[in-house]
Design a protein that fits this description.
- By secondary structure, the protein is of the alpha/beta class.
- It has two domains: about 160 residues, 3-Layer(aba) Sandwich (Rossmann fold); about 150 residues, Beta Barrel (Elongation Factor Tu (Ef-tu), domain 3).
- It has a six-stranded parallel β-sheet with strand order 1-4-3-2-5-8, sandwiched between helices. It has a six-stranded antiparallel barrel with strand order 11-12-15-14-13-16.
- Helix 6 packs across helix 7 and helix 8 runs antiparallel to helix 9.
- The radius of gyration is 23 Å and the shape is elongated.
- About 35% of the residues are buried.
Length: about 350
């Protein structure tokens, strides 16, 4: 069943009636990282055991962008991307609450009674240990549990996911992406960092250098640090290994940030359509070169290094298969053949 996204308690009542019970979680879920996934899979398990709705509550816009706009973090993904990832985890429904000053003013007890109990008829609520809610974030997991005992729902606190000594969080993911540490971010996300959007017109610089590129326009706010990356580009269900530059073309005194990818073994002439770029490894930071010839030589080196990265990846996979280790291809894992249909 596709995820039902509703945008008000009234729409929820119309969609699901007044007797539907739900297991649910509450959060912004930016990035839907491994910590979020652990909680949301727990929601689904609870719901399936009790034969009730598996649900979540999220907010749009991000609360910090309303309460402290100058401190609002760049979002890892758009709301639509978040919903698609949540749907992939098997949830039945999500309530997307419009966050404004009236929502921010709700005391914790008001939020629980009005939203969790009266509207969604919560049976179980799963949250992280650092969960906060209500006016001035005055509510925490302990208060939620106490309210649950009074109002008839269970509360389960899910321990965090810790990878190499770091608690997985949206903040940790953002920091890794902003620093260009895309492999670290991928460990936290359980998938590669990706940017999705539409193919757009470029300046033609790449083609003049005999390295034609496809340019991406994306609505995602958070971009990897400027530089060159070994990537995989997805077009119409096909996966092409690639090298991608995120930057302003400083050699030509550029000022406009672009995301341009050179796809290996790709010669089609396309100027529009959906495109997604998955970032696997940072090759270098952005540099300004002495001129066109120096830049051309560096691009050749970048492409060679990207191919070498994927060759090492393939060799590691072959060794694992020979040793008998099971290594099925995960969603978003680089294809073994350029242009193959993504699984």
């Amino acid at each position: 069943m596709p995820l039902a996204a509703v945008h008000s308690p009234e729409e929820w009542a119309t969609r699901f009636g007044s007797k539907s019970r739900a297991a649910l979680s509450i959060g912004n879920f930016d990035g839907v990282h491994l910590g979020h996934q652990k909680i949301l899979r727990g929601v689904v398990e609870r719901a399936r055991r009790a034969n009730i709705l598996a649900a979540a509550i999220t907010f749009s816009p991000h609360p910090v962008s309303v309460l402290r706009p100058t401190l609002a973090p760049a979002q890892i993904e758009t709301l639509e991307q978040r919903l698609a990832r949540i749907e992939g985890l098997g949830l039945d429904a999500i309530l997307v609450l419009h966050f404004d000053l009236a929502m921010a003013a709700l005391a914790p007890e008001q939020f629980v009674r009005q939203i969790l109990v009266d509207s969604l008829h919560a049976s179980a609520v799963l949250v992280g240990e650092n969960f906060r809610f209500g006016h001035r974030q005055s509510g925490d997991a302990q208060l939620l549990a106490a309210l649950g005992r009074d109002l008839g729902f269970e509360v389960e606190c899910i321990p965090p996911v810790i990878i190499r000594g770091t608690v997985v969080s949206s903040t940790a993911v953002r920091g890794a992406i902003a620093a260009g540490e895309v492999e670290k971010a991928a460990r936290f996300l359980g998938r590669p960092v990706s940017l999705a959007g539409e193919i757009c017109s470029g300046t033609g610089t790449g083609r003049r250098f005999v390295f034609p590129t496809l340019n991406l326009a994306t609505k995602q706010e958070l971009l990897p640090a400027r530089g060159v990356y070994a990537t995989e580009t997805l077009l119409d269900g096909r996966a092409f290994r690639s090298a991608t530059n995120v930057g302003v073309r400083p050699t030509f005194d550029g000022t406009h940030l672009t995301i341009e990818s050179h796809l290996f073994n790709f010669s089609e002439e396309i100027t529009s359509g959906p495109m997604e770029v998955c970032f696997w490894h940072r090759l270098r930071g952005e540099e300004k070169f002495s001129g066109a010839d120096a830049l051309r030589a560096q691009i050749q080196l970048d492409l060679a290094r990207a191919r070498s990265f994927f060759a090492r990846l393939d060799s590691a996979r072959v060794l694992m298969l020979k040793s008998g280790s099971q290594h099925p291809r995960r969603t978003g894992e680089p294809s073994t053949a350029t242009g193959e249909k993504s699984k």
